[in-house]
């Protein structure tokens, strides 16, 4: 496949994702909308009917989806046709107020969740009471002509600079020589020709901190030179265009267009970094002693500060179960996206103490480096493919979760205390539909949903059962499994009272109504009718047949439902 062919395939894939996003906006599926936005679709594009995702969510009255779209970069400019359409087409006053309050001048202040985290690594450094963010910084830029005498240096994360700028990679390689007399390892003194204010803007840009609307017009020329020097994609082009614009609306529109491209570029760069420098450079226990010294040296292409241990179970021919272990060179700054790792370092556990000692220790040859890379572990045994999917998610928000790994991802995300990743895994299960259910029982989905506290899976289970109520009530095996699930659902109610209902039963009855497009009040009204044709056309007769079948199953249970 040629590069152009691959690009065409990517565009087709994004077109499909955009169509799915529009559908999610119409139906109010906020979790799926979140997943699809993370694929990099053009959130301000329109479908073949000239409807944008924001207009569809506004028109259909889905406030949570409207908020999500605005947070992720959807534009509602009341002075333009599409923005006015969204406002006047809003189904509720609440949505209309949200759209009216939208400030188009700040439209570029948007980030994907991974971008928000990366931004925090730099911009939240002064309010980081626990010192976790500062702990991960491993390079210092020093200014010889600092305009502010109280600030003579700026610290940063090497791996991110390397991933985002080829110029910075060359510069950092230059500081990583193992010179026994080099006491300035990790410190880069910038020449007086570099404007500190402009450098800080470039650094913020690398960290995905929205700064496009804050750029001082007097700095345009210096910024263009500096962004060319640092090989920052598209930024010089944007600066040359925007410096000649005077209309605020045109500026905002241009900023929005480029902000989307900038985020897309950042995701691609981090994707390449993860694939080429992390996932391909894993170690196994047999060669750990041989290769680890190379990783200890500061001239390693990953600039990792921790090794992440991951293990999977393997069964030998004699049915004896062993474990295979890999060590992935990672960065604590990105692992902090999972609360499991963050909590590990919030307290003076062994992991934090060892990390701090290795991070700050000055080795005998006067270089600032690691005597060894600290090793931290994923909390449970699972497939390596699962670990690699999670690493991709943590670094650049990749939400592509094949259904084959969805349950493992869901369980691991629960261990890692990552609610968003749990939601993405649950969405993958639901979206895969029949293909997933051809390999897993719907009751496995229910029990996993209970175990991981994902209500969406409980509702999905009830919906599938309601849609196929005859299969689950008439087939002996399914009937027994459904009864068992209802009993377990009743046991989940602590100190159950007589008036308490069973959640699974209530959900199935709700989805039986939805199956025929009915409300509970509708059924009562229709049942007073004597016209058989009307009752059949309304779906009430079919609904009542299904309900009677379900109620018959419930009678066989020794519990009050």
From TrEMBL:
Kindly give the Gene3D superfamilies that the UniProt entry links to this protein.
Ankyrin repeat-containing domain, Potassium Channel Kv1.1, Chain A
Which GO cellular component term is one of those annotated? Answer: cytoplasm
User: Superkingdom of the source?
Assistant: Eukaryota
Q: Which Pfam families match?
A: Ank_4, BTB
Q: What InterPro entries does the record point to?
A: ABTB1, Ankyrin_rpt, Ankyrin_rpt-contain_sf, BTB/POZ_dom, SKP1/BTB/POZ_sf
Extract the CDD domains matched here: BTB_POZ_ZBTB_KLHL-like
Query: Is the keyword RNA-binding assigned to this protein?
Result: no
From the UniProt record, list the ANK repeat ranges.
49-74
Using the record's annotation, list all stretches that form the BTB domain.
137-207, 304-403
- UniProt keyword annotations, A-Z: ANK repeat, Repeat
Q: What is this protein called?
A: BTB domain-containing protein
Its organism's taxonomic lineage begins at: Eukaryota, Fungi, Dikarya, Ascomycota, Saccharomycotina
């Amino acid at each position: 496949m040629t590069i152009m062919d691959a690009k065409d395939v990517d565009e087709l894939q994004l077109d499909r994702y955009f169509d799915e996003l529009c559908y999610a906006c119409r139906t109010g599926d906020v979790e799926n909308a979140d997943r699809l936005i993370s694929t990099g679709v053009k959130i301000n594009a329109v479908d073949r009917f000239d409807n944008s995702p924001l207009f569809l969510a506004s028109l259909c009255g889905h406030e949570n989806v409207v908020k999500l779209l605005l947070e992720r970069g959807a534009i509602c400019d009341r002075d333009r046709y599409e923005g006015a359409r969204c406002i006047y087409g809003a189904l509720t006053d609440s949505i209309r107020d949200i759209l009216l309050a939208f400030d188009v001048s700040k439209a570029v202040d948007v980030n994907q969740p991974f971008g928000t985290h990366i931004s925090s690594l730099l911009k939240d450094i002064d309010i980081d009471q626990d010192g976790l963010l500062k702990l991960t910084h491993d390079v210092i830029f020093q200014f010889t002509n600092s305009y502010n005498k109280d600030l003579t240096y700026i610290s940063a994360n090497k791996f991110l600079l390397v991933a985002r700028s080829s110029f910075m990679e060359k510069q950092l390689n230059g500081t990583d020589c193992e010179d026994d007399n080099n006491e300035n390892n990790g410190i880069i003194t910038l020449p007086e020709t570099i404007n500190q204010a402009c450098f800080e803007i470039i650094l913020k840009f690398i960290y995905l901190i929205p700064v496009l609307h804050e750029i001082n017009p007097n700095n345009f020329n210096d910024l263009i030179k500096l962004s060319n020097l640092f090989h920052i994609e598209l930024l010089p082009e944007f600066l040359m265009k925007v410096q000649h614009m005077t209309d605020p609306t045109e500026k905002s529109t241009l900023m929005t267009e480029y902000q989307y491209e900038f985020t897309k570029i950042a995701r691609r760069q981090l994707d390449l970094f993860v694939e080429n420098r992390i996932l391909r450079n894993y170690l196994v226990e047999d060669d750990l002693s041989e290769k680890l010294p190379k990783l200890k040296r500061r001239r390693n292409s990953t600039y990792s500060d921790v090794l992440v241990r991951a293990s999977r179970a393997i069964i030998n021919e004699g049915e004896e179960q062993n474990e295979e272990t890999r060590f992935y060179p990672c960065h604590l700054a990105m692992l902090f996206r999972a609360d499991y790792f963050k909590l590990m370092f919030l307290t003076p556990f062994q992991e934090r103490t060892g990390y701090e000692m290795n991070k700050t220790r000055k080795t005998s040859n006067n270089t600032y480096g690691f005597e060894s890379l600290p090793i931290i572990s994923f909390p449970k045994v699972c497939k390596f493919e699962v670990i690699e999917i999670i690493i991709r998610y943590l670094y650049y928000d990749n939400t592509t979760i094949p259904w084959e790994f969805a349950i493992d991802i869901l369980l691991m995300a629960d261990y890692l205390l990552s609610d968003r990743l749990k939601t993405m895994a649950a969405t993958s299960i639901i979206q895969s539909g029949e293909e997933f259910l051809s390999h897993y029982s719907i009751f496995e989905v229910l029990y996993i949903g209970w175990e991981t506290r994902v209500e969406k899976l409980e509702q999905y289970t009830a919906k599938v059962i309601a849609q196929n109520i005859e299969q689950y009530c008439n087939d002996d095996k399914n009937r027994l499994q459904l009864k068992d699930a209802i009993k377990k659902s009743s046991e989940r109610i602590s100190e159950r009272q007589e008036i308490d209902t069973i959640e699974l039963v209530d959900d199935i009855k709700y989805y039986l109504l939805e199956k025929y497009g009915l409300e509970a009040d509708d059924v009562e009204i229709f049942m007073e009718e004597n016209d058989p044709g009307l009752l059949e056309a309304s779906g009430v007769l079919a609904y009542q047949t299904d309900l009677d079948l379900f109620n018959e199953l419930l009678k066989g249970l020794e519990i009050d439902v």
